[in-house]
């Protein structure tokens, strides 16, 4: 029976891969979970090892001397301030880790390496993509685009696998719904805090993103579904040397989800929530890349001059960073946290800029699952149910009531 090695084992996506593998101890008798910190107790078939992926391959090899496995899941990620730093650091972490496995000799056992990337593959952070996004869409490698660390990681992976006769799989999840202990960087925490404070202030729940995006489509990825996909793709013969979008399989929009969020927290949606966006001092607007990714394909698609090829923007009807710094908001959160015994630092640590971006875009974000389906993957997750489950996990962790 094979063993697995998972890097980023405490992260939103990696942690779930560890749990998905460990569920089936007969098939996966040994799962090596690697990260700098150890945040939770694991099932019996999981062995946690310390590793610092920013160290040299020689140093890592010392930490890895007892670590062997046929399947490697690389879900580690270090966020840096600039895209160039992300390129350098995240590329080096993967490169040095793979080199360390050659130094210990563990590479001999390896059959397949699964690398977790994301929908930034298509430049969804830069503006409107071509929808639905397909794995065969061109990479944005022209010098006019900022460096994309996924391209560096995938190039490193492809080259390494070619040289060592190994197989690879890459995943592209989008807007992940998941939870990891001590990690406040997820949509669900910020949405939950926003709703609780709104309730404490006695207000109706106003969507803080853009009126445009409220009625557009977004495709989400449950961290559980993603883990299930990774484990399936690791051993499925047809998926060798292929990259896959991994999204829930339902089409979602905030016009559908927001009223459910409101009702989950005992609120109602503010009926005229976008009435004051234009004049509101609370709102903000940020322009994205000069041209959106879809402009790259405008010629072939017959979209030259079409409005979708003009610069995309992020509009927040309530700018969430400013909102989280308001005195009345801080006071309301302290009061909620005191009453309910919640973690007070959650307001400060939650990723308001990220949520503002995700809710404020003015374009659809639709990823096709056809490639995975054609190869036999049948997994599906309901986005609202995934969100509700994560609210439950946040509640158990005393971040939400
Ligand atoms: N979360 C999302 O919404 C989302 C969406 C699409 C794509 N993705 C992509 O998915 C991948 C994983 O992201 P994630 O959100 O799961 O990340 P995450 O929650 O921030 O977790 C990162 C993991 O990497 C580990 N790590 C960081 N630096 C390390 C180091 N120097 N040495 C060893 N381990 C290190 C962390 O553990 P320690 O700190 O304990 O070392 C943690 O386990 C990334 O490529 C990300 O871009 C994420």
Give the CA-based shape: globular
Strand content: 5-15%
The fourth-level CATH homologous superfamily of the largest domain is: NAD(P)-binding Rossmann-like Domain
The CATH class of the largest domain, by name, is Alpha Beta
TL;DR?
By secondary structure, the chain is an alpha/beta fold.
What is the secondary structure topology, with strand pairs?
Layout: E1 3-7, H1 12-22, E2 30-35, E3 46-50, H2 57-63, E4 71-74, H3 83-104, E5 112-116, H4 149-164, E6 167-173, E7 176-177, H5 187-200, H6 211-214, E8 221-222, H7 223-235, E9 242-246, H8 254-264, E10 284-287, H9 298-301, E11 313-316, H10 320-324, H11 327-340, H12 346-349, H13 352-360, H14 370-374, H15 383-396
Parallel strand pairs: 1-2, 1-4, 2-3, 4-5, 5-6, 6-9, 7-8
Antiparallel strand pairs: 10-11
Protein name: NAD dependent epimerase/dehydratase family protein
Organism: Lophiostoma macrostomum CBS 122681
Domain PRISE-like Rossmann-fold: 52-268
What would you note in describing this structure?
Residues 52-268 form the PRISE-like Rossmann-fold domain. It holds the Pfam family PRISE. It comes from Lophiostoma macrostomum CBS 122681. This is NAD dependent epimerase/dehydratase family protein. This protein is an alpha/beta fold and 401 residues long. The chain folds into two domains: 3-175 and 222-246, 3-Layer(aba) Sandwich (Rossmann fold); 179-220 and 250-365 and 380-396, no CATH class. It contains 15 helices and eleven strands. It has helices spanning 12-22, 57-63, 83-104, 149-164, 187-200, 211-214, 223-235, 254-264, 298-301, 320-324, 327-340, 346-349, 352-360, 370-374, 383-396, and strands at residues 3-7, 30-35, 46-50, 71-74, 112-116, 167-173, 176-177, 221-222, 242-246, 284-287, 313-316. It has a seven-stranded parallel β-sheet with strand order 3-2-1-4-5-6-9, with helices on both faces. A two-stranded parallel sheet has the order 7-8. Helix 5 (187-200) crosses helix 11.
């Amino acid at each position: 029976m094979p063993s697995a090695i998972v890097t980023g084992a405490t992260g939103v996506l990696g942690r779930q891969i560890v749990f998905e593998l460990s569920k089936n101890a007969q098939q996966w008798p040994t799962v090596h979970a690697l990260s700098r910190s150890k945040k939770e107790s694991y099932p019996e078939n999981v062995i946690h090892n310390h590793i610092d992926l920013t160290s040299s391959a020689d140093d890592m090899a010392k930490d890895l001397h007892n670590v062997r496995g046929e399947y490697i899941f690389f879900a580690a990620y270090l966020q840096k301030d600039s895209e160039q730093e992300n390129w350098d650091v995240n590329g080096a972490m993967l490169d040095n880790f793979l080199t360390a496995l050659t130094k210990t000799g563990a590479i001999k056992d390896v059959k397949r390496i699964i690398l977790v990337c994301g929908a930034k593959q298509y430049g969804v952070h830069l503006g409107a993509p071509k929808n639905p996004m397909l794995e065969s869409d061109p990479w944005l490698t022209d010098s006019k685009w900022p460096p994309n660390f996924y391209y560096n990681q995938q190039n490193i992976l492809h080259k390494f696998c070619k040289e060592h006769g190994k197989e690879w799989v890459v995943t592209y999840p989008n807007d992940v719904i998941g939870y990891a202990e001590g990690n406040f960087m997820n949509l669900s925490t910020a949405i939950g805090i926003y709703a609780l404070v709104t309730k404490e202030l006695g207000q109706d729940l106003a969507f803080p993103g853009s009126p445009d995006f409220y009625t557009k489509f977004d495709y989400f990825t449950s961290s559980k579904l993603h883990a299930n996909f990774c484990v399936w793709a690791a051993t499925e013969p047809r998926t060798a040397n292929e990259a896959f979008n991994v999204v829930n399989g339902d089409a979602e929009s905030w016009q559908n989800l927001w009223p459910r969020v409101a009702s989950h927290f005992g609120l109602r949606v503010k009926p005229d929530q976008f009435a004051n966006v234009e004049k509101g001092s609370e709102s903000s607007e940020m322009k994205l890349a000069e041209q959106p990714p879809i402009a790259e394909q405008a010629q072939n698609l017959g979209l030259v001059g079409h409005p979708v090829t003009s610069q995309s923007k992020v509009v927040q009807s309530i700018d969430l960073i400013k909102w989280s710094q308001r005195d009345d908001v801080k006071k309301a959160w302290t009061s909620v946290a005191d009453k309910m015994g919640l973690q007070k630092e959650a307001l400060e640590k939650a990723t308001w800029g990220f949520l503002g971006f995700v809710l404020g875009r003015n374009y659809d974000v639709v990823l096709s699952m056809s490639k995975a389906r054609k190869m036999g993957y049948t997994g599906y997750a309901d986005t609202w149910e995934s969100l509700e489950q994560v609210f439950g996990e946040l509640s158990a962790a005393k971040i939400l009531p």
